[in-house]
Here is the input.
Amino acid sequence: MEVAETVFPWLSCGVALFAVLALPLSLRKPNRLRDLQLTLNAEPNGYVVFGVLLGITALGSALLGVVLVGNGFAYAWGIFAIAAAQLVVIGQYIVIARLPFPTFHEDEDPETDEIAPK
Here is the structure.
């Protein structure tokens, strides 16, 4: 149990940090951002359901954390980091859905993101 008291909260913070950094770092290329926007546009109801389920899970995680900390499990504060990471993912999808679509050129090279000369 001592290992869980030490490792779990820091592991939870690592998961939260990964959630905050992973999506913006993966979207540095305009093609990746455009693909994600097209995916969000193609299945808008699916992502609304996904966001609602993530919100319910975040609320459940936070309530579980309150119950566990209230019962004396001090290491359970790591659950709050996981709940915060879920809320960050929801926020990132909302921001991406609200961004204007980048321009698209038929003759764009996907490797270099440059337009081929005609």
